[in-house]
Structures
1.
Amino acid sequence: MKIDSLELQRLAAAQPRLDMYTSIHKALRACMAETLVALGRADTADDAQTQSAAQRVTDLLGLCEAHLDKENKFVHAAMEARAPGSSDALAHEHVEHEAHIAQLREGAAALHDAPVSTRPLAAQRLYQALALFVADNFRHMHVEETAHNAVLWAHYSDAELAAIHDELVASIPPQELMAALRWMVPSFNAAERLGFLADVQAKAPAPAFDAILQVARAHLDDSDWHQLCTGLRLLAVPGLVQA
Ligand SMILES: [Fe+2]
């Protein structure tokens, strides 16, 4: 079948573009949802459960803060360079999110340190405030994935976006990167997970790849882990598949 040039243009336009947001936003959505549920379920009469729930909130806030900083420094900077003003609205929301993060951090510390008698109230207040933060972030991330991507795709080629993303990832300290991967790897669908880890396998030093595989093993069920190992042709490696 002959395809005319207009059809080729339409097909080219329909090709998926490089999306810097999808992977990390899947990780953030998963971490936000699971942390909120864990906080809501925590038995405040139990010291360990209470402190674990408070720590999980603190860890989530650290992830959010680091992510927001990278978006400001790399993504918004790129948008402003070629479309001045295009990141204004969400940059303002980032300022609001920083204030919310500070308040939630205080709430998590208050829950962590509260005597048993006041823990139920401290937990309930933190749970409600975190729920609103999560709701606002879900909406915020959707705007980034639609309106911000439209700006990026209109002004940058995929090669340019890949270079920006590489620079962003290279700026992340190893411990922070592993914290993000802990949520990212299990939140991917199978094809995304295999594509991501095959890329790491091809480009990263073996110790870094092994460290990420350990994170994957710890947070995937047996079925997903076997599927990943098969895709990466790792089934023959002794000890790697433990299911
Ligand atoms: Fe953002």
2.
Amino acid sequence: MDLVQRAGVDVSDWSNYAGKASAANPRYCYEWAFVETGRVVVLNVWLNQIEDVEGVLVLSANMRAAAEHHSEGARDADAVWRRRAERFDRAVQLAARDRLPVRLIICDGRRRQLGEAQASKVSKRMLDPVAWRVASYNATSGDFTLKRGVPAVPTVDQFDVETTQEHPNETRSVTGTAYVRSAEVRRAALRRADGFCEYCGERGFETASGETFLETHHIVPLSEHGPDTPENVAALCPTHHREAHFGRRRDAIREHLRSVARAAETVALPAKHGPTP
Ligand SMILES: [Zn+2]
Ligand SMILES: [Zn+2]
């Protein structure tokens, strides 16, 4: 219970069960999955379920199949195990849908084999300090894969949003005036900004699919023969992108962005970006 609490699940109402056997508490630690809606999912897993795949810790399983297995069993325990497996499956679905962090309570000990009557015996239990995420969930089969570690939130710009909607495989974007922009240069500017407007420092808004949105902007416009290089591209919040184009202060903004982008590209990130493709 303390591990579940430490993982971020509110256990305050669990004390209502004080005095009863812990097994009688439907929310107590004999459960395999706990959900704090909108915040975190906590799953009990076995150490030997975790695999190292090229340096990334991965756990692949299918709790729906496990639940089906128990639905055929006649023992009392089968009904309990089936319900726990179904709840586990729903928790993974929820984590996938809402992109919730997954915290794992990793158990070691004697694990019950499918079809075996004897319950598992846990000898050790630890909360992994690193959050996991659902890397894939197959809604048809129930197969899922969890991966350890949560990647930084990617940032997308106005061209990503347009191309993913209309031309999913396009790597180059052409504007209305037919200037070709390198996707790699835009990527470099977005990576450099890391989600924050390079003018005001505010974080871009979150898109419906969970990325951070900023707009990429040529500091010296392509129409004025500005180069399509990371030093000449800034990542801006939509307001400052508009202001950089149409504001009374646009010249001052341009000067500011020039120094910001140049400093970032020449000092901080010299080797990260290759030449313009
Ligand atoms: Zn801004
Ligand atoms: Zn622009």
3.
Amino acid sequence: VIDAGGAALLPGLHDHHIHLLALAAARRSVPCGPPEVTSVAALATALRAAAQTRPAGEWVRGVGYHESVAGDLDRYTLDALVADHPVRVQHRSGHGWVFNTAALKAAAVGEDAPEGTEFDGRGQPTGRLWGLDSWLRARMPGGSIDLAAIGAELAAFGITGVTDATPFETAADVAPLDAAVADGALGVHVTITGAPDLARPAGPSLRRGPVKLVVADHGLPSFDSLRAGFTAARRAGRAVAVHAVTREALVLALAVWHDVGSVHGDRVEHGAVIPVELIADLAELGLAVVTQPSLVARRGDDYRRDVEADDRPHLWRCGSLLTEGIGIGFSSDAPFGDPDPWFTIAAAVQRSTPSGALLGAAERVSAQTALERLLSPLDDPGGRPRRIATGVPADLCLLDVPLAEALRSPDARHVRTTIAGGAIRFDR
Ligand SMILES: [Zn+2]
């Protein structure tokens, strides 16, 4: 028996799109982009400091790179910063890496490297590798990742369930996650998406959600190849979760949806640009949108500067979609967005960029609505918030204040106790 003292008891929060292994890796990585790093000099300092603390030959892993730091990075720029350690720096989109020369050598990236490896005019790799995470994983040292620490971090936010939206391709890719759920180290419920080819079952402890299909931000797939992904998912009796960040990607995805048809659980991941004229299509197809309000708070000024003027009025829609009856699920996309769901709630309410500008006034929602978008079931992110009732599993988040007070100033510090699957996972 826990005396809550009049404070609010909520269903445990759900993060509908996260990357657990990447988040664990990011915790032992060097930030290489804003806000921590905003110049070549700062990038050099950060990477050299990390290299100095490591024995010769050990990898340095950078994350969060953005072109505003030093333009289009390549191996030669990185070599000038750190040459005596293999260095790899991830673009903040999460879709590509830049390797220095030592890293290319250590990972044996050569002429036979697959598509996604960029070569210069002399047939030499530039160090840029896009969409090759699965291929690279087998060539990289595993390193120690601490999923128990990630589980503890999530529990302290009141989170009891997540969807890992990584497009895992093999059972080996998901094995560490499976083990961390099975032995209780992670301590939250995990549904994974996975690529169309991921064998079923991927692991005994992981629930399978929709199939993740990535419509690349750069270089769209053909209609037929995207359609093949949809039909493979349908053959397996599964919904699809389609990564669509750009206007073109969404148009293509919707064209395939109109052709193949939609099923319950289908969703657009991100929907960073949803032109107003496509909202009716989303509604007609009954698609949910899994969005990341924290990205507006973190990167809003970059969007205002870099996104094409035509797309700017349609960025990271939320309120306008809810008005049209479209289901929305909130998520972090951590490590690319902020894993703290209370930060997400505040960001959705304020829509304020780092410089304090307002991005999308019509997209603001109330704190209550924002919270509810984190309480929907994992298999129905746009659906109704879960309720606490006799007989439901004890996935609970106890606050230290009444709900109205927590919603006035959303903050993870109000999370007092988190119970997942009947076990106390966090107790302040
Ligand atoms: Zn993601």
4.
Amino acid sequence: MDEHMTTSEQSTPQTVLPGEHLERLRAQLTGRLVLPRDPDWDDARQAWQLLSDQHPAAVVLAADEKDVIATVVTARKLGLSVAPQGTGHAGTTIASWRDTILLRTSALRDIEIDPETERVRVGAGAVWPDVVAAAAQHGLAAVTGMATSVGVAGFSLGGGLGWLARSHGLGANSIRSLDVVDAHGRALHVDAARHADLFWAARGGIAPVVVTAIELQLYPIEKLWAGGLMWPLERAAEVVHAWGEWIGTVPETVTSLVRVLRYPPIPDIPEFLRGRSFVAVEAAVQADADAAGRLLAPLRSLAPEMDSMRPMSPAELGSVHGDPPQPSPAVGSSVLLSEISAASLDALLGAALDPSATSLVSIELRHLGGMLSPGRADGGAVSSLDGAGLVFAVGMVPFPEARDAVTAAAAAVARRLASFASPRRVKNFTETPVAAEELYGDATERLRAVAAAWDPERIIRLGHPLD
Ligand SMILES: Cc1cc2nc3c(=O)[nH]c(=O)nc-3n(C[C@H](O)[C@H](O)[C@H](O)COP(=O)(O)OP(=O)(O)OC[C@H]3O[C@@H](n4cnc5c(N)ncnc54)[C@H](O)[C@@H]3O)c2cc1C
């Protein structure tokens, strides 16, 4: 007992104001607590997705696992939620920021590779370039996304679709274990044997925990052929249909997409592309030069204006798709296609060549199948995609007044493909909260049971909530 306390102080329960709890949290953190009155508030709350205007109650810039625990414990005491975020690519998938602490994990970036087991353990704030470069030094490749700026944790937990998709499946299927902090502030190691329900839910579904580190399987791929072939947009119909036939002939070691690209006339775009429109095929081919040459020959016979296909390390794959590395204001919409057929390709062409689509920078169709197909991989809540292709239409919003028009143009693409759409949606390509069943299908009820068991008070707030 404190000898300086008076009798009444000792017997009266201490009422601690929220501000005092937050000051206590500030004192406990190795990282930082940022509050709305702080000068760097706007920087701290900013997401990579510049259209995500996040207004949490506070931001914690976590330096380590202890900071994560302290944040969850404090939030619990105050009746707040905690929303973990690495980069904020998916900021618009958080249903509400009300009474929520934004927990930034971006400083948790340790990377440890075990060449024996061909696994990597990375902090929850790591981004792909750090990981793929380290893995390539051991002749290994990770199942990454097509954009370099995306976070390893959010990408993998959300499913994860990249250049190795048809040969190695969804990124979630490569998760081998997780270090997490649960809604009670307990640090747990989660894998197929320990807390298997959380492990199942986290892979492609949603598990109510803050991940502090993630262990992923890597694969022995030292080189592949990848790049793009581009033709003027006037050849769109010919190229799109040729690609549609070509994908029927390629093995699972080829992942590709066809896209319509419209480059805005702005100085950021290289002069040879600026203001021009193209139809393009991009591909990653796991083969030696001769085999890759044979596989790509039918497309090259269409005499592309540009051909950037070349042998590359998996660490260079991030250059193929050309996504912006810097934070951007973009709006997109997606459709999982149940078939890639002459009819669905015509519908895609109709949508992409419609005058309303000119505000969109890219309308792409990714070829799925292979290891993405249902029944091919054991995994978690979502381990496959029950569709033949994924359409993603995206436009930049250079100034706020353009947002509605770009959103409408992206939605119009999805609408025109509706008769070919699967009832399911792909989580990483769904930018606003939708009904959980659309994302998680038959796994939804089991995910709700896991959430009710581990976080009945809903302390942990993740993108694409279950309700
Ligand atoms: C330009 C661009 C290109 C993209 N390309 C691809 C692609 O090729 N393939 C693909 O599959 N996806 C792609 N995406 C989608 C991207 O993978 C998702 O938006 C993903 O959720 C981003 O993860 P993040 O960690 O970067 O984002 P964040 O917004 O930081 O996190 C997204 C969500 O992941 C979960 N999460 C993140 N960190 C944690 C944590 N520590 N603990 C628990 N949950 C956590 C939360 O639900 C969080 O809301 C792209 C997105 C953009 C903007």
